[in-house]
Amino acid sequence: MSAGRYEIRFSGAGGQGLILAGIIMGEAASIYDGKQAVQSQSYGPEARGGASKSEVIISDEPIDFPKAAAVDALLALTQEACDKYSRDLKEGGILLVDSDLVKKPPKGKFTLVRFPIINTAKNEVGRTIVANIVALGAMVALTGIVSRESAEKAVLSRVPEAFTDLNRKAFRAGYDKALQARDK
Amino acid sequence: MSAGRYEIRFSGAGGQGLILAGIIMGEAASIYDGKQAVQSQSYGPEARGGASKSEVIISDEPIDFPKAAAVDALLALTQEACDKYSRDLKEGGILLVDSDLVKKPPKGKFTLVRFPIINTAKNEVGRTIVANIVALGAMVALTGIVSRESAEKAVLSRVPEAFTDLNRKAFRAGYDKALQARDK
């Protein structure tokens, strides 16, 4: 998992904090893990409402082409986003979905991991608003592309100090639940 | 200014809110003005400390190559960022610098606009933290690539409701001062 190019896409609905999740993943990889990273969001005329996404490309080498084309790991927090953005998922890739909201994940040669991401944020961590950080923790665990320590540092550097504990709890809940869901 | 590809780069130091400025510019162009936009940040091993940047590419057509190569408009909030990121500025482009912090702007065939951006945020708007929104207002005024109304809506949709007035004031201060500085 260390060399080469690795593409991650976070998708869901607008307002779910997916850009922040992408920014934190990019900063974890670069600032704390010493890799190259490009984080981006593309908006078309469909940007108002509906499905939205953010992307991170991580590499040991300079990244010449910063657009995701063969996605290694995809998060989908809504069925619409899953339908729209799972086409580019690589064979052998990872698809993480919210099991309450994505009832019909695609079929294919990839590892499907499902757990109730938003419900975990709401009922176990205590605030729906940290669902993006639960999802980020899960993606860090499943991809292994950045270290857990780097990702936690990157989370804490991006959230208001008053919410440090909440976000750490969210990150860890996502991390642990994703591994349980994958391995069960 | 309507057709074709338009590249904007916001540069300065980490922690100055340049990613947020880029996100807001991208959302103004796409969600509110109906154009295509890609917003991105690239991080290398140098990402820890020092100069940092975020970029937005805006077009009426789908954007195939999302990396800035010939920058139409550059903001530089620090001398280091100005030195590092002004090389790709197009002939005929726009360079906006903080006049207190960038004492040696490059020479070249572009429009140089200088005013004390951070000082405006601190002393006229009342909070240094909104310097990014002052700068954004200035870039909207100077580039004309998104409408003032769209940009204001995009700002207000991205900032906490308690800070609506502060951010509106910051945006308008930047917008007005940039035009004064350019036309004087």
Can you tell me the number of structural domains of chain A? 1
Query: What is the mean predicted local confidence, pLDDT of chain A?
Result: 94
Number of strands of chain A: 6
- Taken in chain order, the helices and strands of chain A follow as EHEEEHEEHHHH
The low-confidence parts of chain A are none
Which pair has the most extensive contact?
A: A-B, 26 and 26 residues
Gyration radius of chain A, to the nearest Å?
A: 15 Å
So how many helices of chain A?
Answer: 6
Gross morphology of chain A is globular
Question: What's the short story on this structure?
Answer:
The structure is a homodimer of 184-residue chains. With 184 residues, chain A is α/β, with parallel strands linked by helices.
Give the helix/strand layout.
2 copies of one chain form a homodimer.
Chain A: E1 5-13, H1 18-32, E2 36-43, E3 51-59, E4 71-76, H2 79-85, E5 89-98, E6 111-115, H3 117-125, H4 131-143, H5 148-158, H6 164-183
Parallel strand pairs in A: 1-4, 4-5, 5-6
Antiparallel strand pairs in A: 1-3, 2-3
